[in-house]
Amino acid sequence: MSQATLTRPGGPNTDLRRPSRRGHGHPWLTLLAVALGVMVVGLDATVVAIANPAIARDLGADFAQLQWVTNGYLLALAVSLIVAGRLADRFGRKTVFLVGVAGFAIASVAVGLSGSIEMVIFWRVMQGFAGALLQPASLAILRNTFPAEKLNMAIGIWAGTSGLAIASGPIVAGLLVENASWEWVFFLNGPVAAVAILLGLWVVRQSRDPEAAGSFDLPGVGLLSAALFSLVWGLIKAQEYGFGDIVPLGFFAGAAVLGTAFILRERWAAHPLMPLGLFRDRSFSAGTGLAMLGFFALFGSFFFLTLYLQQVHGMSPVDAGVRLLPMTATFIVASPVAGALTARFGPRPPLVIGMLLTSVALFALSRIGVQADYLSLWPWFIVIGMGFGMVLVGSTEAIVGNAPVHLAGLAGGIQQTAAQLGGVLGTTVFGTILATRVGDVLVEKLTGAGVPAEMAPGFTAAEDYVAQGVAPVPPGAPQPLADAITTGSHLAFMTGFQGALTVGAAIALLAAVAALLVRRGENTTAGAHAGV
C-alpha cells in the first residue's frame, strides 16, 4: 500500500496527509531516526561507567559523589518520564522527541565543559530531563508508524540499536579516556544527536492523542513527580544511612502518602494524567514490574563489574571495555531474536527465558574471587547480555502492546520509568549491600592479610574507597604492608560484591516466575498499515 493511502483503525492518531517530501513517514527511515536519538542515551549507559574512575581522580569525587553522577541522571528520568510521555501524546511525539534529543546533546556538552563534580552532577540531571522527553516519544512514534505484524520486530531493532550503543560505549569511552580525556566521552553525543535531529525533521511524521486536548491534570503531575522523587531519594539515602534509618524510612513513607494521593486524584480527574485502568491488565502490570527487574540486574551488575575489572584487576578503561564486550555485544543479537520470538509466541517465552538466564549468570558471577581469570567471566557476560535483551524486548511489548494506541506515549513513559527505577534500585541496593558487607569484614580481611591488628581499625575511615575496589595504601608505606592492605581491601570488596550479586540472582529467579503471568498484547493494532 502506498504511503499516500495510509489508514489507521481506531481514530485520527496520526497525521495521514499525503507526504510533502520523499521519505516523510517511511517506517524504516523513521525507525533509523528514532534509533539514532535513542543511541545517545544508550551510549551514556556505559560510557559513564567507564569514565567514572577518571572523573573521580580528576575532580576529587568520593564514592557518594561518583554514584550521584549516575543516580542524579536516573532520578531526573524517573521523576519525569511518565509526564514526558503524556506531553508527547498531547503536543506531538515528533516535537517532544526532537526537543529531547537537542536537550540531551546540549547537556552532554555542558557535562564535558564542567570543572567540578558538582557541575557534572547538575548537567547529568539536565541530561535526565532531556532523556525523559525523547525515550517515551520514540516508542510512541514506532507504535504509530508500524503495522501490528511488524511492530515487535521494530521494537527489537530499536532495542538492538540501544544495545549497539551500549556495546560500543566501553570501547569508545576507554579510547577517549586514555588518549584524550573523560570530557570527550560526553562531547561524543553532539554529532550523533545532530544527525538524529536532521533526519527526524525530514522523515518522522507528527502524531498525537486526539483525546488529550483537555486539562493536563497539573495536580496529578505534581503528586506523581513528588511521589517518584521521594521514592528514589529514599533509595539513594538508604545507601548512605541504611534502609532502617529514619531518613530513608521518612522518604519511603512520604512516597506512600503521595502515591496514594495521586491514585485518588486520578480516580476523580476528568482528564487523568495516567488512566488507572491500564493496570487492571495483568500483562501490562507484570511487564512493568519485569522491566524494572531487568534494569535492576543490568545496572547493578554492570556498575560493580566495571569497578571490579578496573580497580581490583587493574585494567585500563579500554581493557575493561573490551572485556565487557561479550555482555554488551550479545545484547545487539538478543534484541532482534527476542523481537522474533515475541512476534511468534508473545512476550511470555522471552521474559521467562531472559530472567532465568539473568539469574543463572548473576549467581555464577557471585562465586568468583579476587584472582578470577577472564575465562571464568566472559561466558557469564554473554548470558547476561542474552537475558537482558530478552527481558527488554519482552517487557516493552507487554507494556506497549497492552496499552491503547492513543496512549502510546504514556505507555512508553511507564515502560521507561520502570526501567529507570530499576536502574536506581540496582545501583543503590547492590551498593548498599556491598558497602555494608565491606564495613562488616574490612578489619577482619585486613588483619587476615597481614596488616597489624592495632593498625587495621584505622582503615575503616576509608570504607567508601574500599567499596569502589580501591586499596587505601598510605603514601610511603613499605611494600609488604602495601601488599597486605591491597589484598585485604580487595577481599573485603569481593565479599560485598558476592553478596550483592547473590541477592540479584534470587530476585531474577522470582521474576522468572512472575513472567508466567504475561500474555500477548491485545492492543497491537499499529498506527499505520504501510507498505513496510
Automatic annotation (TrEMBL):
CDD domains: MFS_MMR_MDR_like (cd17321). PROSITE patterns: MFS, SUGAR_TRANSPORT_1. The keyword Transmembrane helix applies. The keyword RNA-binding does not apply. Residues 1-22 are annotated as: Disordered. Keywords: Cell membrane, Membrane, Transmembrane, Transmembrane helix, Transport. SUPFAM superfamilies: MFS general substrate transporter (SSF103473). It is a multi-pass membrane protein. The chain crosses the membrane at residues 28-51, 71-88, 95-115, 154-176, 182-204, 216-236, 242-264, 284-304, 324-343, 350-370, 376-394, 499-518. Residues 30-523 form the Major facilitator superfamily (MFS) profile domain. It is found in: Cell membrane. This is MFS transporter.
